[in-house]
Write a structure and sequence with these properties.
single chain; 160 residues; alpha/beta; eight-stranded mixed sheet; 28% helix
């Protein structure tokens, strides 16, 4: 395996500790957006599990919503599901709470364990792809593995 960047290596080490054989793949081009990732991987945009970090307004806790790449998150619905309003997190909050920069936030291995919601639409796929620590690193997994790794609740979180 080629050498991984430090952030991607951190994600690979976490995946190795789980022991299911997941492999982080770093691409030459960006996988920062769902469209970029789908183009680099050769899958549909809907198969990209994008990790979006929100901040719970009252408690200040990080909230991770893993959404299908084609869906927009309904922030009001997500807030109702966790019991408090949420807002988009700024880049500093994301880095401090996850240990990763926006565009490369994986669904696991965060500095502060977040509340996790998983877009029910992701469960319609045999396999999905998630960010792996950098804006050009991803790994493949099943929706069931995503639920298991994150302890997330599967919910309807998309707008519309």
């Amino acid at each position: 395996m080629t050498d991984l960047s430090p952030s991607a290596r951190r994600v690979q080490d976490i995946l190795d500790s789980i022991g299911l054989g997941h492999r982080v793949v770093e691409h030459d081009g960006s996988t920062r957006t769902s469209e970029d990732a789908a183009n680099a991987i050769g899958c549909t945009v809907a198969q990209i599990g994008k990790s979006l970090i929100f901040r719970a307004k009252e408690s200040g806790r990080p909230v991770l919503v893993v959404a299908s790449g084609v869906n927009r998150v309904d922030e009001k619905a997500a807030g109702r599901l966790i019991g408090e309003k949420i807002e988009r997190a700024d880049p500093d909050f994301v880095r401090e709470n996850t240990g990763f920069a926006i565009g490369g936030v994986p669904p696991l291995g965060h500095v502060v364990p977040p509340l996790v919601l998983i877009d029910a639409d992701l469960l319609t796929f045999e396999t999905i792809w998630a960010a792996a620590g950098t804006p050009n690193a991803v790994f493949q997994l099943t929706p069931a593995q995503l639920v298991s790794m994150t302890g997330g609740r599967v919910e309807a979180v998309k707008k519309g």
